[in-house]
Amino acid sequence: MKKKWIAGLLALGSISMLCGFDSAQTAESVLTQVKENSAAVESMSSEFNLNCDISINVSDDTTSSSIGIFVGADYEIQATLDPLATALTGTMTISTFGEGETVDMEMYMISSDDTVDTYIYTEDSASDEEGEGTWEYASVSTEDYDLQPLIDLSESVDYSKLVDWGIEFTLASEAADYDGTECYLLTAVMDSSTVTRILEKAEELAAETGEDISDLTEDADLDSALELLEGVQVKVEYYIDTTTYLPVAMHVDLNDSDLAAMNDYLAEYLASEGDSSTIEIIINDLSMDYTMSYDDVDEITVPQEALDAIAAGEVENLEEAIEDAVADVA
Questions:
Q1: Which of 48, 75, 122, 183 would be 239's cystine partner, CB 3.0–4.6 Å?
Q2: What pLDDT digit, counting tens, does each position of 264-302 carry?
Q3: Could you tell me the pTM of the whole model?
Q4: What is the DSSP string of 137-178?
Q5: What share of the chain is helix, strand, coil (3-state, %, to 5)?
Q6: CB-hemisphere CA count at 13 Å for 196?
Q7: For the CA atoms of 15, 19, 24, 27, what is the dihedral angle to 10 degrees?
């Protein structure tokens, strides 16, 4: 009898492990549990994939043409909390007008009690020979790199109030399978009204502290930008492990967007320039995928070749490189 009782408990335990989905949960309660369980995570590894495939169709009274633009990115990311460190490696591919270019990148950020050291390696197929990319390096004081405000903000998020900001997650009524893991599936759709609500909420909170940010939220350029976003939709799918309550994947795409407002703006602009051509932007695929696993990174170390390059003085100053890049864009 005792053996049967023990066997029954084991069977019940097995069933509960296989069926972690709790139909009594809500989107807010799942997200709150994610926040609580994430606090115990010490390291994380993830993969990030970007796929941007856009066509621009141009036509005038006599001819028509189509320009394809493709940007793809695949990155592996690792992070530890003690010490705070991250490593990113991967490749970005850009293709347009029949020409392709790839940029390989490695980035390491290592923190200590006094400094945060950042090492970045880039190798551009358009300008670098294979294996002859450039290392860049910067070291800043931890006093100038305070992450505590960001941490405090993350810990203060109340998921039950996200709807007040125009962001509303919906929890699927049944468990979803993601690569063999039983998950809660949360979905949301955000559009220009979401951005408008976020701005309104920011203005409300600022007013409570006696600040007036209406000059920012009511800016004419901002209104124009919001008009261009009319019809743009951002779909989010968020997969949460039913056992650990930790995120395992996120999918984001803009594939259901209606770009009529943007296309109309381009047509009006061309007409104002005396050009009768028309331009139509078509999204073939604009999506991002992010997968995560936890407590599987022991240590993040900087490659010896980066340290050797620094010792030999063969590195560029990262801060100066960023300033130059910003100046070029400006």
A1: 183
A2: 888 888 888 888 888 899 999 999 999 999 999 999 999
A3: 0.82
A4: EEEEEGGG---HHHHHHHHH--GGGGGGGT---EE-SS-EEE
A5: 35, 40, 30
A6: 11
A7: 160
